[in-house]
Design brief:
The protein is of the alpha/beta class. Helices cover 49% and strands 15% of the residues. The strands form 2 sheets. Strands 1-2-3-5-7-9 form a 6-stranded mixed sheet, sandwiched between helices. A 3-stranded parallel sheet has the order 4-6-8.
Length: 267
């Protein structure tokens, strides 16, 4: 793993840190590619239960795309820009949104452009009281391209999202909380501790149940209620024969803490 992403694994939590502080953790092509590799590493390790995603340095979570790199690609024409820039960014945010383990963003500073789109895509987000958000792509003469035109309206509502998308104006953590972009605001020095506390509260429960909930919610958002209920039934049918459900029920009746093993085996 190269230095664009710092990887730390401890007590079931994988902390992935965007590590270009001198560039405000701008999303270069290399950083995005390394993030995809890091997510694959987490996915393949059953001991890792939750991901925390944050930025290095004191100024930024991520200020968005690496504009110098993107500008060079634009000069090569629309096909190159879509292939190298748009698809790469959309693949990353789609991967985060559909990831089978909970992903918590710990927003430690600027979350502009692509940094805001990552925040929109992840499952949960905790923000420092120093964080600041923006959808500034219109200042460059373009729309957001990593999913921001689709996810933000679903989170915030059409009119609030359009105001941010069409003005490019920055907005505060309080506004982000009000529109559902983040879950919590904490003092800056308590950010990672708060994200880790959220992770531990998730890890008390069955990893299979968590994965099923993530699947149903993520897929169901783009379905009719009837289709979503079918996915819900399918996920329950998948969980029903597992040790985790039997253990959860037995522990509840015995008034004890459950001991989950996270296996799909129907034993």
């Amino acid at each position: 793993m190269a230095d664009n992403i710092l990887f730390n694994a401890r007590d079931g939590i994988a902390t992935l840190t965007l590590n270009r502080p001198e560039k405000l953790n701008a999303l270069s092509y290399a950083l995005i590619d390394e993030m995809m590799l890091a997510l694959a590493r987490v996915e393949s390790d059953p001991a890792l239960r939750v991901v925390i995603l944050t930025g290095s340095g004191e100024r930024a979570f991520s200020a968005g795309a690496d504009i110098s790199e993107f500008s060079r690609t634009v000069r090569d024409g629309p096909d190159a820009a879509i292939r190298e820039f748009v698809r790469r960014g959309q693949t990353l945010t789609a991967r985060l949104e559909a990831f089978g383990k909970p992903v918590i963003a710990a927003i430690n500073g600027l979350a502009y452009g692509g940094g805001c789109e990552i925040t929109e895509a992840v499952h949960l987000a905790v923000a420092s009281d120093r964080a600041i958000f923006a959808k500034p792509e219109i200042n460059l003469g373009m729309p957001p391209t990593f999913g921001g035109t689709q996810r933000l309206p679903r989170l915030a509502g059409r009119k609030r999202a359009l105001q941010l998308l069409l003005t490019g104006d920055p907005f505060s953590p309080a506004q982000a909380l009000d529109m559902g972009l983040i879950n919590q605001i904490v003092p800056h020095g308590e950010l990672l501790a708060a994200a880790e506390d959220m992770a531990r509260r998730i890890m008390r429960h069955s990893p299979l149940a968590a994965a099923s909930i993530l699947t149903v919610v993520t897929r169901g958002l783009n379905m009719s209620i009837a289709e979503g209920l079918q996915v819900e039934s399918e996920q329950f049918a998948r969980v029903a024969p597992t040790h985790d459900l039997r253990e959860g029920l037995a522990a509840w009746m015995d008034r004890r803490h459950p001991r989950y093993n996270g296996s799909w085996a129907a034993l």
